[in-house]
């Protein structure tokens, strides 16, 4: 396992290169967080927020070349050693993270591929998710310093697809997707749901059986939208974006083939802002010892048109024709009270999430 940019130092800064230099923060050494998937849509936001909250971060990447973007984005944190990277080519390989977890205070397991097209859902979706999660937990159980581990699961591990749209029902952290291995093998969509369900269940089972001296927190967000912070291949246009943002943008542009030229209706109307998901991760690390919980994260249940009032009011170009608005009570609800009470989260309104996503992609020159 190769390690990049490891120079222990007290200061953790997210200052960009064009900002005025200021004295280094000489506060005591901060806690070290192992972050898997820092170069993903959610992971990039978690990384940014961890650094802003003065954590030291050790990120896992498949190859150290993937870390160049962050080295340039956070030059001071990289130079000081507050931001370092380890190469983990295959997170499924036995013991792949044993060295990476050495000496860490926290683990944020965010690495979580999101795709539903698969010719072999079990081998391409279920096994990688379950094996990857088992590996991370297995390595965590060998740690002598770990205090808490967070795992980003998904609302896919909560929802019962056979009962959609389940109007009037409110999902809670006690709900689990009843998907079976047989159903998982049918197609990529079911395979994705199974991958999230089986992986999260495996984590809880391993943790409960081992009874370690560290706490476990899992997050179950539905569709995640918001402004991208990860490295984007602009040469691919909108196809260079992550799946959820690509879906959001093409839907509000009226480019979804099933709804064109109107703004599309989402298959899963439940959503959450990526910045709120990042906040949940960072706030969970600060919880008192002994708190191990499963949190549902949800900003609301909306159709894409419900987030376009502001953009339409100002005459924004490039939007599709008016689409459908969500019908109150038609779809299930998600109980987010635990996240609000325990993590003190205040969820972002859908209109702001859509507008900020649109503006960020626009600034990238992809709209």
UniProtKB/TrEMBL annotation:
Gene3D superfamilies: NAD(P)-binding Rossmann-like Domain. The keyword ATP-binding does not apply. The keyword Endoplasmic reticulum does not apply. It comes from the Eukaryota. InterPro entries: Epimerase_deHydtase (IPR001509), NAD(P)-bd_dom_sf (IPR036291), NAD(P)_dehydrat-like (IPR050425). Pfam families: Epimerase. Residues 33-289 form the NAD-dependent epimerase/dehydratase domain. Keywords: Oxidoreductase. Belongs to the NAD(P)-dependent epimerase/dehydratase family. Dihydroflavonol-4-reductase subfamily. This is NAD-dependent epimerase/dehydratase domain-containing protein.
